[in-house]
Amino acid sequence: MELIGEEEIQEVLEVLRGGYLFRYGISLGAEVDPRFKGKVYQVEREIADYCGVRYAVAVNSGTSALLTALSGLGVGPGDEVIVPGYTFIASLSSIIYARAVPVLAEVDQTFNLDPADVRAKITPRTKAIMVVHMMGNPARLDELKAIADEHGLLLIEDCAQAFGATYKGRPVGSIGHAGAFSFNVYKTITSGDGGMVVTDDEEVYRRCFAFHDQGHSPLRTGVEIGQRPFVGLDLRFTELQAAVLIAQLRKLPRILSHLRANKKRYKELIADLPGLEFRHLPDPEGDCATMLTVVLPTEEVARRIAKELGTKVVAEAGWHVYSNMEQILEQRTITLEKCPFTCSPYTCRGGEMRYWKGMLPKTDALLARSINISIGVSDPGLSSAFGVTMRDGLKEVEERAARFREVAGPHLKEARASLTGRGAGS
User: Fold this and answer.
1) Helices 239-270 & 6-18, crossing angle to 10 degrees?
2) Stretch among 41-45, 205-209, 262-266, 315-319 having the lowest mean pLDDT
3) Nearest-CA neighbor of 87 among 356, 325, 376?
4) Are 153 and 35 spatial neighbours (Cβ–Cβ below 8 Å)?
5) Catalytic residues, which ones?
6) Domains contained in the chain, CATH given
7) What is the pLDDT of residues 208-265, one digit of tens each?
């Protein structure tokens, strides 16, 4: 949700006038030039403080944040990670590139992980549960954390779509062993692209930092020789991205307040439609309110309404639904060997994984009869073409809600009559 204004411009100009765009300035090991603003350091500290944790590592995308979190926690070959079948594909691809294997689990009417199915999917190979807070709504964290603790599993929070959300007063990302955020253009606040890993564990922080910066120690001032714990990558954030994100972070309270007011009003205006249900919110006060998800009586009704509104049912959200991810279903990895699915660290532990359309019937049925209404995020990947934008106010909310009623009302009335008629004749 891009609300780019003078604040972001001034932050970026400060970096450009200083002349240092790299997160460390230019000359590693030299004295700090006062012209170097250290924006990456600053935004890491501010987001760690916001989340109520001790550490944060800024990286170049939300996908990188997930991969860094997995690597920092030691998830790798031979391990399984339980993840929902309704999520952005990065949740799955990051697990695969960590050389672990995703285990798909059902979602419930929170549109997040179903704790009962998570419990059923645990095997001796399970290393972690990746809980995804889809569309700004926290998952059932109490239940999922209890399951993780009971089985000695890592709990990783994919908060890519939920920066600003809270669960029982605690920011998401601070409850699991590590949390990962995204700041691309479809998120609550944005730096164009970018991500962040947060954790309260010093060793996990050191490992995450090393992974994102070629194995180096946190906040290095030189090039280390002989002290790097393992081979890392270059996933670093830039000073320009950090400058934009700092300005965006200051706008977060206003953004959340606006979203929540618009969603509350929109929901009030359509709540009395017969047969209409809403997504379940485990903590309504903590929802980011970026999306209003409605659940219709049948798939047929949902598809008819969606078509008239110029949008799609959630099941057609291409890269967010497992059954639309052909590269996952067919295990198309970068080599013909299809590691990690077929390689010895996994198969020697008795692992064998297959994916297919229809493997999550509860998820499939729910997504097929649901529609996402945009409250502030108009993301084609979430099938949210209908609704309002972040720049819209209550007037536009009322207009779009009236349009929804105009379209959905007759279909819901017809569906109710049909169900009543069948019941009377049975």
Assistant:
1) 170
2) 315-319
3) 325
4) no
5) 187
6) 6-250+332-347 (3.40.640.10), 254-318+361-425 (3.90.1150.10)
7) 999 999 999 998 877 777 788 999 999 999 999 999 999 999 999 999 999 999 999 9
